[in-house]
Task: structure prediction
Amino acid sequence: MHIRLSIVLFSVLICLMGCQKKKEESPKTGNSRGDKRPNIVLILADDQGWGDLSGSGNTDIRTPNIDAIAKYGVSFKNFYVQPVCSPTRAELLTGRHFPRTGVYATSSGGERMDYDETTLAEILKNAGYQTAAYGKWHNGTQPPYHPNSQGFQDFYGFASGHWGNYFSPMLEHNGQPVNGNGFLVDDLTEHGLGFIEKNWDTPFFLYLPFNTPHSPMQVPDEYWNHFKDKNLKLYSTERDAKNAENINFNRAALAMVENIDYNVGRIMAKLRKLYLEDDTIVIYLTDNGPNSFRWNGNMRGIKGSTDEGGVRTPFYIQWKDSLPEGKTIPQIASALDILPTLSRLVGVPPITAKPIDGKDLTPLLFEKNPEWEDRLIYNHWNGKTSLRTQKYRLDAENRLYDLQKDRGQKTDISVRYPKLRDSLVKAKKDWLYEVQPQTAKTDTRPFSLGHPSYLYTQLPARDGIPHGTIERSNQYPNDSFFTNWSTATDSITWDVEVLADGHFDVELYYTATKENLGSIVELSLGNSRIAKKIRVMNNPPLKGMENDRVPRKESYVKDFKPMDLGTMVLKKGKGTLTLKTLKVAGSEVAEVRLLVFRKVE
Result:
């Protein structure tokens, strides 16, 4: 009897051990961890290069908090994004090649991701997640392109491509203009911490697309002081007369990354304090290569380039007690893969109306020797296209490089492998034919106005067209304003589509000097028009230069103030919104930054 019982107990023990081993070898998902699905914190830096981390081997910088995500999680050795901001963000959010989503530029409407795309935020929100995005959106300003209409229940930051001031700037909260509080990355993180605190007991998706180290190069003194006199030991291997390094720019960029690292540390500390670290998937990556020639692992290319240095990014993912610690994955992967991978990890099927181009990376995350087919990753920007296999890169000029031996793309091996080169050239042509990249000439989408489900619509100067003597404050539109409005024949127009009939209160964000008060401005669309005399002076100075560590190329900004223009009655349909003057009281009517439409309930 005792012997028979011992045999039974031993058999049960063996079974339990086998079952436990099988469980450990299989991917853990949200459905295998109880009732509550894991949270997600996705942190995206702006214009930070692969080499701008101490974990990448940069001895000029200290990034212990970011490095720790890799140390206690999984890092990808060969992870790729697109050469610039908007395309990467579209791929990350949809899992689809960015030309399919309508994105083809970074400003003036070309940054918009089609509203019928299904985003990761929409998928998670439909599964019961609380969702928020705090930072730089850069995939459309007006609903239904706005983050609130793309799955994010709460948005705080700016929807444009770059911003003119990082210290308490004008931002928006769910479409309504508001003032920021302190240094922008610190402020965005503060909102993220509040969101985590508020939703600690329910699954949440927190997207933190930070705005740095994108220019203007502004950073608090405590970080700048660490770098302003620092002798940087590492340099770009592409330095020459054409590609000279701007040392102060690079010092500022590294200082800004150290500030990001501080804020990543704040996020991780909050998760630990609330006992959420083992219930939260944390991801860190950047949106393209570095925004200057600086050390980047001796790779060729910077931001805007389809070469290795312009598109390779760090990609770290941590899920404590679920993902392996310290694992490095050599297989190539891309931003396209984030949506299907996270969907698998949290146990939410990625139900989309359009096919997903990305791959589920969970076999690479969990398995020691996964079966994994070679693939092609495509990089495209400004008419140039390159592609990456596990071993090779075919560049935009159809030169071939063995990146396992030649990460810096020094030796073209096309002559040695003509059949391989020709097959990759054909794959490139086939891909371009399939995705059909759009251009400004083929984009017929007007700017949307008055979405029936949203209270606010912003029409910034960036999206307007000046006529007559009116000039844009800078050739880069994203944070620009209109100036030199001096004659009665001048006007500003926006190509719009009113999405539903409605009444809208309209505010004009303007400046006007005392001697120019008395001009009358009129706003019209179809048969609807409103006019108002400018009676209140608002004559702020240009600002931004006082916080810049190096001279900028973008526009400086001003403190534009709102003026109530009145209420417009708009009818559904397309047309030209026109801002003009009925009277010029002085030498200049006003400077114009923004129109804000508020739907009257």
Summary: The first strand starts at residue 39 and ends at 45. The chain has three domains: 45-202+215-276+289-312+334-375, 384-435, 447-599. The chain has eleven helices and 29 strands. The chain has a mean pLDDT of 94.
